[in-house]
Amino acid sequence: MDQDIIRFALGAFVTLLVVVDPPGVVPMYVALTKGETPAHRRAILGRAVLIAFGAALFFLVAGRAVLSYLGVTVHAFSISGGILLFVAAMPMLFGQRGGLQSPEPKEKSTAHDIAVFPLAMPLLSGPGTIATILLLTSQAGGDIQKLMAIGIAIAAVFLVAFVTLYLGARLISLGGEGGVDIATRVMGIVLAALAVQYVLNGITGYYHLLLGR
């Protein structure tokens, strides 16, 4: 593999790692899985990372073609992701279980809901990640080696995300129930702000897109 491909792969890895921001997701992950057993929490994490990784690969392989066919822009993804994220943040602001969880276990495991939304999307593989992947594929310009390098970078980023969330959650959980309650409320505020920022980014991006036409 030549130096240009290596530099491209490293650049893709660093860029995606910053966008996904695994350390920033740790408190949200802990708050969303509050009250779950360690084994159940690990199952949620594993499923969430796999789903996020699969979504990222999908947009690497077919993202531009699908969005173009449907007439959907990345900015629309940003706005919709922000709205869904805000819905997830509201229960957290009042110290309740976040996301789509319910207070009591149901016949169907809620881990499926939590893993898909909001952990996998939009926290781990949200509009920012999708936009970054689409940007990197544009930079690759159809070069198979560069596209493979992006795929390797994506796999490495989500491996780092899994390890970071797993270890980070154990450290935060040492703070006990009170610490998790505080983290839940604080991260609810952060999550709500992040959701609003996603919406603003989507509106601003679409506005600039219209101006450029």
Topology readout:
Elements lengths: L2 H18 L1 H11 L5 H33 L3 H20 L17 H14 L2 H14 L3 H30 L2 H36 L2
Helix pairs in contact: 1-6, 1-7, 2-5, 2-7, 2-8, 3-5, 3-6, 3-7, 4-5, 4-6, 4-8, 6-7
Average pLDDT confidence is: 80
Strand element count: 0
Shape: globular
**Rg, alpha carbons:** 18 Å
What is the count of distinct domains?
1
The helix count comes to: 8
Order of helices and strands: HHHHHHHH
Q: Into which percent range does the helicity of residues fall?
A: over 70%
> What is the end-to-end distance?
39 Å
The chain-level structural class is: mainly alpha
- Strand percentage lies at under 5%
Low-confidence stretches: 97-112
What is the makeup of the main sheet? none
Task: Explain what the structure shows.
With 213 residues, this protein is mostly helical. It is built from eight helices and no strands. The protein is globular and about 50 Å long. The relative contact order is 0.21. Mean pLDDT is 80; it is low at 97-112.
